[in-house]
Every structure is written in structure tokens, then in C-alpha cells.
């Protein structure tokens, strides 16, 4: 059999935030979190969204400094420079050192409680909201439209279907 004869099919997207080496440089979708997420446990909201939409997980520098995320997840001047099709930034202020790492993204969606946050100066879509409320709602909205194999473990598919 020759290689061209092998039929391939994408069965699922795997979120790679737990891997030794991040794949942020090559991801079409990146979900980034900042100090606004408030606690390491809340990073689960990022992972759930990334898993649902097939993206990688990144962060601002303070999350690495706090030990919430590994250093290879840092985006910005002293981290990765990314150029995804979609970058979703949650609880990130948009300091210049972060901005230089993300402004090559085709579409930047920023979620921040503070309508005057600098990130809204360069985001294409700004959402003034609490990321801890908005991220799960966004994940559920995507999950309704994605194939079942991308749904989050523990997410109540029946409950989602009921709302449709
Ligand atoms: C030499 C040098 C290199 C640096 N390199 C980098 C780098 O590579 N990458 C990098 O990211 N930074 C880098 N920094 C740090 C940078 O200057 C900023 O301090 C950092 O980016 C801020 O991170 P943050 O946005 O997560 O935190 P903050 O600036 O504290 O912003 C948190 C944001 O979350 C919002 N928020 C709070 N609660 C919520 C909520 N519930 N929902 C939604 N939003 C909320 C707040 O309004 C605020 O805008 C560097 C700094 C120096 C000096």
C-alpha cells in the first residue's frame, strides 16, 4: 500500500497544555489566561474551552512566576510570539510585553472586567465581563456546536441539549 492510499480522518482535538513541550507556535487557536483568573484552580476554565475548540493553552508571565503554569506556556516578550487565527485572552491586562507576543493573531478576543484595560486597545472583539462566568458560558456555547467527542468530561450534555 502506498502512503497516498491511506484515508485519514480527524477524530478529535487534544488540548496540549499538560505536555512537556507546548505547541503554541503552531496552534491555530490559543486560549490565554492572566492574573484576572484569580487562582490556579480556575485555569480549568481555560483548559475546558481549549479542549472544546481544539486550541492550545497559554498565559501571561505572572502565572508562570506564581507556578500556576509551566514556563513554556508564557506568551509575550520573554515567552512565545504567537500568530494564531484566534487568540482568546481572559483576565489579561494587555501590558506591552504581552501585546508584542500576540498582536500577530488574526483575531483577538479579550475578556476583562475593566473596560479601560489596555488589551481593549488592540483586541478585535472586547468582552467586558468576569472571565470566570464568561469562559464556561462560551465553552458550553461551543460545545453545543462541536461533535460529541470534543465535549468536556463531566459536562452534562443532556443539560446542554435541554437548553437548545
Ligand atoms: C522584562 C519584562 C518582560 C516581561 N515579559 C512578559 C511576557 O513575556 N509576557 C507577559 O504576559 N508579561 C510579561 N511581562 C509582565 C508584564 O509587564 C505584565 O506585568 C503582565 O503581562 C501582566 O499580566 P496579567 O495581564 O496577567 O496581570 P494584570 O496586569 O494584573 O492584569 C489582570 C487583568 O485581569 C483583569 N481581571 C481581574 N479579574 C477579572 C475577572 N474576574 N475576569 C476578567 N478579567 C479580570 C483585570 O482588570 C486586569 O486587567 C514582562 C515584564 C518585564 C518587566
UniProtKB/TrEMBL annotation:
Pfam families: ETF_alpha. Keywords: Electron transport, Transport. The keyword rRNA-binding does not apply. It comes from the Bacteria. InterPro entries: DHS-like_NAD/FAD-binding_dom, ETF_a/FixB, ETF_asu_C, ETF_asu_C_CS. Residues 23-102 form the Electron transfer flavoprotein alpha subunit C-terminal domain. Transmembrane segments: none annotated. This is Electron transfer flavoprotein alpha subunit.
